[in-house]
TrEMBL record:
Polar residues biased stretches: 42-56
Biological source species: Podospora pseudopauciseta
Protein name listed in UniProt: NACHT domain-containing protein
Segments forming domain NACHT: 442-573
Transmembrane region(s): 12-33, 170-188
Top-level taxon of origin: Eukaryota
Keywords: Membrane, Transmembrane, Transmembrane helix
Pfam families assigned: DUF7068, HEAT_2, NACHT
Region of interest: Disordered: 42-61
Length: 1198
């Protein structure tokens, strides 16, 4: 019996072991079934022997970028996600719908998820050799070796993606499960400067751990029976279990030591690393993993990695996720609460990593997010982007004395005097204030009409400050604040302040937004933190309608020390506004900018080939139509004109402003019909279908939109409203176009613009492309009602008060109102297109009439300019109206000695021609003097007046003709040039001067003409000599003979001639040494004015010899104070000044120099002259002042 019992016992033990092994194998087969199902054995040896044991397919480390549209240049940080044990990418990060395996979401790659939230980052997944079953024919890698391989692979692959071969870009790691342990091991191993991977260590700025088992896992509870089964399973597959499994069974001494070293690494003062831990709340039933058929009520549900194991002590507030361990790295969409937790922490870390202090974070957030190229882009009507280097914004000092009469003056697009132009780089340079003192402006107001570019100006300032270092020495930051945002309902809170403004404007989407707002506010108060420039855009939009605390805050905002305020011309500034230092206005393009814009517009984007024929056609058209040329100085008008040009009929380019606007309207509707997705017979309209559609057909597609625009324009124009908020838009839509879906349709309309397309519809204000487009559509509404014999709906939008009016009554009431001037032009032009101009002009001619006359004649003249000259029922009335205008011009010229109507572009050429031939000598002279102030005169007028350039014509009349010809941009025939040149010898000084000025602008003057101008340097009249100087100065086409004739006059007996010759040579880049010596000889001239001119001509030149500089220095003892001062300035700005030049005159030099400021005088009292000179020369970058040859005598002192 004993032997039998022993045998049975041995047999029982064998079966128990076998069952245990079998149970373990089954358990792990079920547990790791997905992995095994995916794994396929591969040949073990590199020779291809397939009979050997299987080997893992993942023995290397690979990075894979999951947002390939991002590159190094448009990002500033890398995110690298590392998977855990026995998995790989992208499966680790991919959620699979249990009901539909084809429905998957990879939160690292899905454009709705992390890529959309981290625009400034590249996202990578990192695969590493993490197979649970390893090849049995190889010695297994240790954890240290795997950690080294991890960093080697990351370093290698990052180098491939870096254009500059650098791996020091900041890195944020996302580590799942055991991947976090391997990453920590790699970082600890690289934490010394001699390491090959030290650059990766310092580049690592943050890590997000997802259920990383810093204290082991609950796997240790089943390891006693699972290990044998797993070993059997590995043997069956000709592999062996990975040694890494030991790291997850439970806490070990090695794991605890690693955690301690890693914690110290993260707290390093020089290279800190932000860390955060997420842990699971979901439980895993280990028994049901083995036996799925067991009841769910069976005990054994546990967290695989519990909170105690998943957190580090330095993470004070770890967060849980409501999911099991298997789903800790998988999220089903952007609305998943757990995903929001993880992605929110990632964004928080990115902010902390990319920026330092809260203030630096705030500045970086504004620069990188709010001032991104996407937000600063300027889009043309065509949809193409306008490069910033071709963005022309012209500013000019406001002329408060001018009263706008002409169309171009009303639109503020007359070519301004260059002397009042202010460029952006010089905006804050010192200039004379109203009290005559020189002051650096810090509070600036910029006015501008719609379409001239105020918002574009703001974008240009922000762009150039960020990318081109504009004003970097003056300001630390530029804060662009669209003031319309102050009207947003959610901002209407008691005690609104700068913290609230910064939060709402810049940081409302940041988790730490309040902290950033506070930091920015503290910087604003603390002068040591640097100056802040506010750009307060659109004051006119908040000048009314704000009350309470918001009104008080607006006043505080406007009174900031450094501020640029933009506003419409009619905006009234608050009475308690602090004084402004400078008031400017945005003005239209200059002629050369129009030319550049046209050339760029008709240049192929890819080949850069210009369409020279089309460019010539456009420029020729504008030269023939001075009024249109003036209108094209408005940026948005020029953009629309160029966009529409291809749609103009070849045989008939529009001749009037109204016709051009009609063509622009038609062209833009064709584009908008496609954007609005209009349909014909149930099918979307195509571009080919709409391209050749008639105007009637086009209007049928957009009937509701067109009616809405007409009513919106007219009601706004009638009530003096140009910004339409959502209440006004809805009021108009409900009354006149109720079928429109404003939220959907308005963004598709090219005729309307919103300053903030990114905001909610209720927060947006819309305005027309330009005020003239609003006037155009308002005129369309007027004509619609006129034709339909309906009253005008004169609803006052601001007060919801309706006052209907007959069109005839409306004309009587507003025909002389200056605000309606362009409106009536469009009415006349649109009615003329329908052959209804006769009725309109008959209505204008009715009572009441202007008692004095000029206002009525101006109205008639302006409206006539929009009516094409053709045979119609209007021909007879037109002739009578033009005859009345002729009689008025003659009367005005005779009675007032002036003719304001002649000065306007709209004055008909035929009327001018008739008046000039009928007028008396005195009347003709007055009219010609008025014409001389115009920048363009019809060719038929030039043909009429040019034959009068004879000696028989009075000097006053001849000078007026010359000034008129000199103002013309178009090329004049050679015959007229010869007539002008012949007047250079005229006996009257006014004629000679006018002839020189008329020739000055011509680039192709004959040598004989230049000789004649040079001869005027000897003219007896000072103004004529000055005109000759200006005409010759800077010309590069002077022949040797002309040049020598100027030089010869340096020795002229008359002081005025010598001075004129010097001034004519001043500013020329290249002058022969002989000429420089001749000018230098004039430094000894008997006349102080000539000596001063000689110094000014030599000032700033780098090609002066020591002998010439010595001669300038000798003028430090000149008897004339102005000459001494000129010598000081010339020497101060001479970059290569030798002390040998100054030594003989050093006391005189500083006696004069110290007069410049009391501050410099004090410096000289406290220091000896030698130190003063050394300081001066060092500041100027002159030669080494310690050179023995140039050392000053130590005895010199103040």
């Amino acid at each position: 019996m004993p032997s039998v019992n022993l045998s049975q016992a041995m047999h029982l033990i064998g079966w128990t072991t076998a069952l245990s092994l079998l149970a373990g194998a089954i358990a792990f087969g079920l547990w790791f079934y997905p992995t095994f199902a995916r794994s396929k054995p591969v040949p073990s040896s590199q020779t291809g022997d397939s009979s050997g044991p299987a080997r893992s397919t993942r023995q290397d480390v690979r990075l894979c970028q999951v947002n390939p549209d991002k590159n190094e240049t448009d990002t500033d940080i890398d995110i690298i996600a590392i998977h855990g044990l026995d998995t790989k990418s992208p499966g680790t990060w991919t959620w699979v719908d249990p009901n539909d395996p084809n429905n998957t979401v990879n939160w690292l790659a899905d454009p709705r998820m992390l890529p959309s939230q981290v625009e400034a980052a590249r996202i990578f997944t990192c695969d590493w050799p993490a197979d649970l079953l390893q090849p049995s024919d190889l010695v297994q890698k240790t954890d240290v070796e795997i950690a080294l391989l991890l960093f080697e692979g990351i370093k290698r692959d990052l180098l491939r993606t870096h254009d500059k071969k650098k791996v020091d870009r900041p890195i944020l790691f996302i580590a799942s499960c055991l991947g976090g342990i391997i990453l920590a091991k790699a970082l600890v191993g690289a934490d010394y400067k001699c390491s090959s991977y030290y650059s990766l260590r310092t580049a690592t700025r943050g890590i997000i751990f997802l259920a990383t088992p810093f204290g082991g896992t609950s796997f240790e509870d089943v390891a006693i029976w699972a290990d044998p089964g797993l070993t059997v399973w590995a043997l069956i597959r000709r592999r062996e279990v990975s040694n890494l499994l030991g790291w997850v069974k439970g806490s070990t001494f090695a794991l605890e030591a690693l955690v301690r070293r890693f914690t110290r690494l993260c707290q390093d003062n020089h290279n800190p690393c932000h860390v955060f831990c997420f842990y699971e709340l979901g439980k895993t039933n280990l028994w049901r993993k083995v036996f799925p058929w067991l009841p769910a009520s069976l005990p054994g549900w546990k967290q695989l990695v519990d909170m105690r194991s998943a957190i580090l002590q330095i993470v004070l507030e770890p967060l849980p996720l409501n999911r099991t361990h298997r789903l800790m790295n998988k999220f089903d969409g952007p609305k998943c609460p757990d995903y929001k937790q993880v992605s929110g922490k990632i964004l928080e870390f990115l902010t902390k990593i990319c920026n330092g202090t809260p203030l630096a974070q705030a500045d970086a957030r504004i620069r990188n997010v709010h001032y991104s190229l996407e937000r600063l882009k300027i889009e043309r009507l065509s949809g193409d982007l306008l490069p910033m280097d071709r963005c022309y914004i012209n500013l000019a000092i406001v002329d408060t004395t001018a009263f706008p009469v002409s169309l171009l003056a009303r639109l503020n697009v007359e070519t301004p005097d260059k002397t009042i132009e202010v460029t952006l780089p010089t905006l804050f340079e010192p200039r004379k204030s109203q009290d005559g003192q020189k002051k650096q402006p810090s509070r600036i107001l910029i006015r501008g009409r719609a379409g001239v570019g105020k918002t574009t100006l703001c974008k240009k300032i922000v762009h150039d400050f960020k990318y081109n270092n504009l004003w970097q020495g003056l300001f630390n930051r530029v804060l662009w604040v669209p003031l319309r945002n102050l009207k947003v309902e959610k901002r209407q809170s008691a005690g609104y302040n700068f913290r609230d403004l910064f939060y709402h404007e810049y940081f409302s989407q940041d988790l730490e937004g309040r902290e950033l707002s506070e930091a920015l506010w503290r910087a604003l108060k603390d002068i040591k933190s640097g100056r802040t420039l506010f750009i307060l855009d659109g004051f006119d939009e908040v000048s009314q309608g704000l009350g309470g605390d918001m009104s008080v805050f607006l006043e505080e905002l406007l009174n900031q020390a450094n501020v640029i305020i933009t506003a419409r011309p009619n905006a009234r500034l608050p009475p308690r506004l602090d004084p402004l230092d400078l008031e400017l206005e945005t003005i239209g393009f200059y002629p050369d900018q129009i030319t550049a814009y046209i050339e760029n517009n008709f240049t192929d984007r890819e080949t850069r080939e210009r369409d020279l024929e089309k460019i010539k056609e456009v420029q020729s058209f504008l030269q023939r139509h001075p009024l249109m040329q003036g209108l094209m100085r408005i940026p948005i008008q020029l953009d629309a004109f160029c966009y529409t040009w291809n749609g103009f009929p070849r045989e008939g380019v529009p001749e009037t402003m109204t016709a051009v606007y009609k063509a622009i309207e038609e062209s833009l509707w064709k584009k908008d019909i496609l954007k609005l997705q209009k349909k014909k017979d149930g099918e979307p309209v195509t571009g080919d279908q709409i391209k050749k559609a008639s105007r009637k057909k086009i209007e049928s597609f957009v009937e509701q939109e067109l009616r809405f625009l007409e009513c919106l324009a007219f009601l706004g124009f009638y009530d003096d409203v140009i910004e339409f908020d959502w209440k006004l838009r809805n009021a108009v839509s409900d009354r006149f176009a109720s079928d429109l879906l404003l939220d959907k349709d308005l963004p598709c309309l090219s005729f309307l613009r919103t300053s903030d397309p990114s905001s909610n519809d209720q927060d947006r204000n819309y305005h027309f492309l330009h005020l003239t487009f609003q006037e155009y559509f308002a005129a369309r509404y007027f004509i619609r009602q006129w034709k339909d014999k309906q009253q005008l709906n004169c609803l006052q939008l601001s007060r919801d008060n309706c006052n209907n009016m007959e069109p005839a009554t409306f004309i009587e009431k507003y025909k002389y109102d200056p605000r309606y001037d362009i409106f009536w032009r469009f009415v006349a032009g649109l009615l003329d297109a329908d052959n209804m101009a006769l009725d309109f002009f008959q209505m204008i001619e009715k009572e009441p009439r202007d008692l004095l006359g000029p206002t009525h004649q101006r109205l008639v003249m302006h409206c006539l300019s929009e009516v094409e000259r053709k045979e119609s029922n209007f021909t007879g009335l037109r002739a009578r109206l033009e005859n009345q205008l002729e009689q008025w011009l003659l009367f005005e010229s005779d009675f007032t000695g002036n003719s304001k109507l002649v000065h306007e572009m709209e004055c008909p050429g035929q009327v001018l021609s008739n008046v000039l031939t009928q007028a008396s000598e005195g009347e003709r002279t007055v009219i010609l003097e008025s014409l001389s102030r115009r920048t363009a005169v019809p060719l038929n007028i030039i043909e009429v007046v040019s034959p009068w350039l004879t000696n028989r014509t009075s000097a006053r009349q001849c000078a007026a003709i010359l000034r008129m010809l000199g103002n013309q941009d178009n090329n004049l025939p050679d015959k007229i040039h010869q007539s002008i040149a012949a007047r250079l010898e005229h006996k009257d000084r006014r004629v000679r001067r006018a002839a020189i000025e008329a020739l000055q602008r011509r680039a192709d003057l004959h040598d004989q003409v230049l000789q004649s101008i040079a001869a005027r340097l000897e003219d007896e009249d000072r103004r004529v000599r000055r005109a000759a100087i200006e005409a010759l100065r800077g010309r590069t086409d002077l022949s040797g003979q002309v040049f020598q004739s100027i030089i010869a006059r340096l020795e002229h007996k008359d002081r005025d001639v010598r001075e004129a010759a010097i001034k004519a040579l001043r500013g020329r880049a290249v002058l022969p040494d002989q000429v420089l010596q001749s000018i230098a000889a004039r430094l000894e001239d008997e006349d102080g004015g000539v000596r001063w001119a000689a110094i000014e001509a030599l000032r700033g030149r780098a090609d002066l010899s020591d002998q010439v500089l010595q001669s300038i220095a000798a003028r430090l003892e000149d008897e004339d104070g102005g000459v001494r001062w000129a010598a000081i300035e010339a020497l101060l700005y001479q970059s290569a000044l030798s002390l040998d030049v100054l030594i003989p005159y050093i006391r005189s030099f500083y006696d004069a120099l110290l007069q410049k400021s009391f501050r410099e005088h004090l410096y000289c009292v406290q220091h000896n002259v030698k130190e003063v000179v050394r300081k001066l020369l060092l500041e100027k970058g002159a030669a080494n002042v310690n050179d023995g040859r140039r050392r000053l005598p130590s005895t010199l002192s103040c």
